[in-house]
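TA notes. Do not distribute before section.
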Amino acid sequence: MKNLKTPDELGNLAHPDKVANPDNLKFSETLRTLFIGERRGLHVNNFLWAYNVDSGQLSRVCPPRPARKATGLHAVDHINGFAYIMSNFQHPGDWELTTNASGEVTGGLHAKVVQKLDPIIRANYRNRYSAAVGYLAGLPQKV
């Protein structure tokens, strides 16, 4: 994790190419990879990351939606010759904002993106009352 001295152009408080505020961890012995779900608070859009312990390579696997956290992380190493990674997210559009007495946004982690993204989140996630579950399938058992 590498915190930034000042927020970047999107409002990230931590370097976007580094894991920030890890919350859910799952290790796949077969893939020799640690999967890391981020919790909200430092990145505008949190990610599910993969860190291969042999090569030292850190990769973004998938971005759940802004203002949410990855949760329910699970790795299944052996089903019919393949490995699977499952995850879900919760709290889409749970913006971290600072407002004034009139309710106008004056700052906060999501201040630069909320106006554009809030209508999209509301339209796709039942006005912020739903979320999604997904999985990566057909991963080789040997990397």
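Switch to the second chain here.
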Amino acid sequence: MLGDSVNLASRLEGVNKQFKTYTMISAMVKERLGGAFPVREVSRIAVVGRKEPVIVYEPMTQESFDARRPLLQAFDAGLRQYYAGRFPEALRLFEAIAAQDPPASCYVEKCRELALAPPDAGWNGVWVMTQK
């Protein structure tokens, strides 16, 4: 198998492990699903070997989504703060749910790093992946 989609799928497998999620899809796959499954946005990422960042999502069953709705809303609030470059606020939101949500625990570490060494003024919220 060859091509950009195959390369991205391979990269997302590694990103999935880094965020401690079970399944991850790209924005293109989400669009093609047409709302068949609920998803939560996990991150804007830049993967090795690809110039443009990609938004990735975690798909789940409706039952799981409904059961986790408050946690997912808290995660989304933290993600919005992270994207806006408000790392202390994002950290506070992610810390509140990190014990129940592996991706939130990943953001706790990332927000701590960024709070200590803030990015340049051109911050765009993209998490640059340095591993394949």
